[in-house]
């Protein structure tokens, strides 16, 4: 029998004993009067070895217990923080102290009532007079000295991660505040928040492989949304001039520090605007979140200080390539670009002029862009949903913001010519039919909606998870998603066994 199994057996025995004493180890409620942080703030001036006249009534999980005979110290953690409990001979009723000693273990939830004091070592504490068991834990918490350190175990068992590493909660509190700041800003500008379908008969709005499922009621295949874009544009057609959504997207692609199969994206569409307006809005969203949540536009990420103060640097894709790859792609043919990429070992999927330009940018430039920067004026081959550039027909009015070498979002002057849009989506459908899994399927209803007329529109997509990574200085997307996708434990353990062998 393992040590964990022995502990569980011992705790089940205690539960049995409690029931014989007519004590419910899982009562229904407890009248909480105080929380830890409130007590620390209120009694911050209490001197060492000083006892107040005030009592407190608190509830939470017992993290550690230290029994030194005449006195027992325990650390209680609630949703706001930690506070010490003291059980002392001649101060704590003997029955209360004995009950705690005999039946309470680390991990249990208890309610405690007593007098506020500060110990001679300076620890704010509650000198306990009464306790009540609120939930008996069966499994022990991780080792109090080493905590929960294994990264995979932390992600897989987020509940333990939150118990043993309280700073983790702070990331998700800040995540909520960041999202709140975005909503507040957009609504102050007259944007309406909406919801779009996650289950779709035709997916679209991005180049990505979808997840496929089946609707039994109608016996048809469906796809999980890869983007809300085409639905939001329908709403602009319908007269909602300023619209946004914060939605889950699902893409059947790779998993790494920046990618999770499901992630949170915000998309915004504004009638009578273009990609220049979206650039101003994008950087304002970031700057506003920094000021609201952190009180500064300068965020330390590792050893780098990122500054999100507006305006951000702007570079065309051609300018970035000229700076970092030392070539002028606007003066080169597709044959010359192909010769360059093959000579320099640049990976590419397509030998068209535009996609070669994009491949060169990804190879030479992305990793060099550390401070927030807008990369504008992409080749037209990169998306079928964007307007052709008003000064160069080889390009489109698109930008992607970059920071720390990674894309933060995507935005266009949206294509609203229904004839051209139909042609471009039909070309994408042909590519999809020939096996290009990331190509757009043809969405007839979307094209029909454009035929009724969509005004000039600017649109942008902003990755919420990436925003939280950047602003909270986290190493991975898994650190900003409460329940990131993980391999089933059976597969993970099997892989570990193979490596050991």
Describe it:
By secondary structure, the protein is α+β, with helices and mostly antiparallel strands. The protein folds into 2 domains: 3-141, OB fold (Dihydrolipoamide Acetyltransferase, E2P); 167-325 and 365-500, BirA Bifunctional Protein, domain 2 (2-Layer Sandwich), CATH 3.30.930. It is 35% helix and 25% strand. The protein has 15 helices and 19 strands. The protein has helices at 3-20, 36-42, 94-103, 151-156, 158-164, 167-188, 229-237, 275-294, 317-324, 334-343, 353-364, 418-433, 444-451, 464-472, 489-500; strands spanning 50-67, 71-78, 81-88, 109-118, 124-135, 192-193, 199-200, 212-215, 220-224, 242-250, 262-271, 298-301, 304-307, 313-316, 373-376, 398-403, 406-407, 409-413, 457-463. The strands form 4 sheets. Strands 6, 10, 11, 14, 15, 16, 17, 18 and 19 form a 9-stranded mixed sheet that branches. α6 crosses α8 (275-294). The chain is elongated. The two termini are 25 Å apart.
Number of strands: 19
Q: Determine the mean pLDDT.
A: 95
**In the CATH hierarchy, what is the superfamily of the largest domain?**
Bira Bifunctional Protein, Domain 2
Could you name the CATH topology of the largest domain?
Answer: BirA Bifunctional Protein, domain 2
Give the number of domains. 2
Treating each run of at least 4 consecutive H or I residues as one helix, how many helices? 15
